[in-house]
Amino acid sequence: GSSGFRVVPMDGKGFGVVAEKTFDAGDLVYQEAPLIMWNVEDATKTQLLNLVAAIAVLLSVFLLVAFNAVGFTPLPLAAAAAFALRRRELGMPEELQEQYEQLSSEEQDQLKGLSDCSSGEKTMMGILRTNGFSRGASSSSSTLLLCPVLARLNHSCSPNCQQSWDEESGQEKLYAMTKIQPGEELCITYCDLREPRDKRREVLRAKYGFLCSCPACCHTDIETSDARRTEIARLQENLAAAQPADGVEMAKRVLQLLDDEGVPDLMLRGLACTEAVRHCETLSDPQQARSWAEKAYDFFSKARGPTSEIAQDAKALDWALDSQMSDDSSRMSQLEVFTCHVPKPGEGRTSGRKKPEEFELLH
Ligand SMILES: C[S@@+](CC[C@H](N)C(=O)[O-])C[C@H]1O[C@@H](n2cnc3c(N)ncnc32)[C@H](O)[C@@H]1O
Questions:
Q1: pLDDT value of position 74
Q2: Residue ranges of the chain with pLDDT lower than 70?
Q3: Residue located nearest, by CA, to atom 4 of ligand 1
Q4: pTM
Q5: ipTM of this predicted complex?
Q6: Whose CA is nearest to atom 7 of ligand 1?
Q7: How far is Cα 53 from Cα 47, in angstroms, rounded to an integer?
Q8: What ranges in 162-308 are assigned the alpha helix state H?
Q9: Does the keyword Transmembrane helix apply (predicted)?
């Protein structure tokens, strides 16, 4: 309502999020602090410890029975194992259970109401896998975030929004990537959009349990669509190592293909522009380099906000190039600074949906 969107039942998709007002590309649609932040790696360690405790208890029971050595039974170990084996609500691992118990009962209900795409009984782990975002841009991030409102965003292969984790505010943010009209559904991507349709469908089916029939998947000329997406992936892969003059043309081609394919992905666009900056540098064409740096800033500031690190880096790069037009000294260092913060293409949403190991929404 007051946020400019509403969570409503959608045909064949459970709930979804629909715009109630107009959004422009780059508008911050919503930001939400996660109710759960769950680190998969820490949890694995705890599971291991629990396993050790359980083995220890079995061993002590064995000692007890075998030698009737009641007096030597390691009671602390038995206690640890009992702790490890206690029943957990909704089958949650301990850390998750602890965080869950800190929440108010309304918040708990909110989480329990989220969808679980795994078959069988609903579990908190299933809810986390279906709805969790991975923290940070990296697909290797092992922390899953559960945000009950943003969890209602459905998937599209030409999404109009993009979510990202903002470490500074501790919030997951949703930006509009295109102009969005009232009544339009807000969608993000759960998968790598540069894959062909059948591959995307396979991933979405396996991780999220649905057959994608978004407009891009129902494209009448799916071969052309697949060819474009495959070419985008190939160009991006070869962009950095290309000959400078080719590299600039390849960056232009990436932007053109994204337009043709109706994929507004502003991060992919921004990344292509930063490669073009580098190539123009090599070609000693600071004017062109600046114009690409400006484009990169524009894309990144719409995708992540103008004060985001990646947008600020692009701006700093533009300034460095500007001063380089009269003084050559500061530029390399700026380019290096920038490189550090740029995520690799394809690192995005799900991980949950990236498998906890792989893409950003967990979705
Ligand atoms: C993170 S939830 C999204 C919100 C969900 N629709 C709900 O009702 O809470 C992910 C689940 O939504 C459904 N979903 C998401 N995008 C979809 C789409 N494009 N078509 C059909 N179902 C979709 C799938 O069941 C998926 O497992």
A1: 61
A2: 1, 42-43, 69-91, 136-141, 326-363
A3: 152
A4: 0.82
A5: 1.00
A6: 15
A7: 10
A8: 197-208, 222-239, 244-261, 266-282, 286-304
A9: yes
